[in-house]
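Field notebook, page 201. I keep forgetting to write these up properly, so this time I am using the form the group agreed on. The chain and the ligand, NAP, are recorded exactly as supplied. Prediction of the bound pose follows.
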Amino acid sequence: MSAAEVRIGLLGLGTVGTGVVSIISRHQEELRHQVGCPVTIKKVLVRDMKKNRPVDLDDSLITDQIEDVLFDQDIDVVIEVMGGVESTKEHLLTALRNGKHVVTANKDLMAIYGAEILQVAAENNCDVYYEASVAGGIPILRSLTEGLAADRITKMMGIVNGTTNYILTKMTQNGSSYEEVLKKAQELGFAESDPTADVEA
Ligand SMILES: NC(=O)c1ccc[n+]([C@@H]2O[C@H](COP(=O)([O-])OP(=O)(O)OC[C@H]3O[C@@H](n4cnc5c(N)ncnc54)[C@H](OP(=O)(O)O)[C@@H]3O)[C@@H](O)[C@H]2O)c1
């Protein structure tokens, strides 16, 4: 990775991607302090180039060609927030084989292909971080793999899903109906437009 700068290729500019861009932009100083160098967005992949975006991004950074991210030698880290499973897996494997570290919020992908993705990452000396795919980003995975590394965990119990947590809390506290709270969660961007993966058994 470039020591002078961490350069990001962002796959997706929807609910989560927009949040990533605005956090990186708003917290540029803190990030630079923590990481030790500036963190910059070099390219952003979208499906529809004509869509209006609620973020302040130079048009030249936006592309609808995945190759512009995967084969850009200047990109160090690929952040995947586009969703999808089969083709997205292939994109991330290509990114790793090209020496790019990967961050993903994609629970479906990691549940099905996590082992293979981590294996390819190890073969290419790259990191894969997927904390955002579990429990709305509550730092559970890192606590388990690092903080509790010396412990032998036999069971974990709880609601490890941010959307479900929000829905159950609001139903309990306000007595609202499930449908009402799910709609609100979708409006707030906690629940996805297709909430199946979060709310179905
Ligand atoms: N929403 C949440 O609260 C939440 C929480 C945790 C994890 N996640 C995970 O984060 C990921 C993104 O969720 P989201 O809610 O942000 O989704 P979203 O709002 O639907 O955004 C998806 C973005 O990816 C782009 N995209 C999708 N398929 C593409 C393709 N084939 N080629 C190019 N661009 C493509 C879309 O482009 P256009 O804008 O041009 O359509 C859009 O910008 C999912 O894996 C989801 O499970 C979401």
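OBSERVATIONS:
- The first helix runs from residue 15 to 26.
- Residues 162-199 form one domain.
FOLLOW-UP: compare against the apo run.
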